[in-house]
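Hey, I'm writing a tutorial for new members on how sequence and structure tokens pair up, and I'd like a real worked example in the thread rather than a made-up one. If someone can provide the structure for the chain below, I'll link this post from the tutorial.
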Amino acid sequence: MNNQICTGPLPAAGLSRRAFLNRFGLGLGGIALANMMSPTNVLAALANGGADKGILNGQFHFPPTAKRVIYLFMAGGPSQMETFDYKPLLNQRNGEQLPDSVRQGQRLTGMSGNQSSLPLAGSQFGFKQYGKNGTWVSDLLPHTAKVVDDLCIVRSMFTEAINHDPAITFFQTGSQLSGRPSIGSWIHYGLGSDNENLPAFVVLITPGKVDQPLYARLWGSGFLPSQHQGVQFRSGKEPVLYLNNPDGVTSQSRRSLLDRVNELNSHAAEKLGDAEVDARIAQYEMSYRMQTSVPDVMDMSNEKPETFELYGPDSRKPGTFAANCLQARRLAEKGVKFIQLYHQGWDQHGDLPKGISIQCRETDQASAALIMDLKQRGLLDDTLVVWGGEFGRTAYSQGKLTKDNYGRDHHPRCFSLWMAGGGVKPGYVHGETDDFGYNITKDGVHVHDFQATMLRLMGVDHERLTYLFQGRRFRLTDVHGKVVQALLA
């Protein structure tokens, strides 16, 4: 049996909280009605204070500096040499062979491992220094460069996976193998929700950009109770699939149906003691409340024209990365705990100059606008924003290197990402790589270190947020990882 760690008081012997409330005439319908009539009444206190406080019940391990996370995931692996890790030596030695002393016999993928040569490829894009500390940023990212003093850039990330699916799975769940809970699920499990009418974990994906596939398990709850899984929001008439009532079904009839189904589920929960029955009840109730809350939060008609101008012209086109960034800010305002954006298309094995130019045009202005928008609304201080992919790219060209074209293969040894707000050190660059952008020379940050640091900012000790499953206590960082203190403000 799956058993969660529970440090709070247990109900009377053999009696769950839900069964206790039902036995005393405080069923789900009664609680909902009473809560609408008097949100501060004693029923709310009985039902865990009227809010989902997570398994930690609001008892943080550390004082939190971030209340929520907006994670901008650039699926495919952006090249660090074209974004945040300036390597002029690559340009000077463009076309020369990657020295054996640099490669050191390290593994290559099957896509470039059989190449007869590994010619160094300098970036075709310039870099300039920005901000108080003169941080180098690519000309491809002019908007991001303007907010560099708000960014905490990590140039020394490294991972263990060399292919996309295990690498993305590793970042999102802490394991290269599928089946573990995602970061957002762990945070919801530990910290609960700040809005009972919206999911604590929402996923937004830029449509029409199929490069490397994204699977729902990336935002799944794994072995955690299923109410902790992410909920994907889409553009269009049906933001959440199967949420709307069918034709001819009224809200009142749906409420009546749910009450009857929940009564049956409550009997099953009392008899079987299966946490998934309670999870199913919670999901039914959330779905019912979302019928009103989701259309409201997805309606951007009340946004000011200058806000759309800040995020760029694409922000008026539902589903684009820019529109999703604006939507993420709205969800953050509503108390959504973890907001995950995925933008595909960064897997540039060939024709990299053209491909990465398109990707940066689609994401640069909106990413910077999100920082500025949160900041001017007073939300950046307690909102952690993350930008990055699953690994980096090689210093050598995959395939033929020409005067105006080249590609880059997967490179897990070093790459860049940035964070902003939420208690990270602003205007700071952490870590260094060698002159070729191939190996880390200072202050490496492993994926589990990054995850441990993210949880620390949320007030959670990554070693203490665990779940007992099949006889073993699991955690997001598995048996590895340390908080990178230098990243904390």
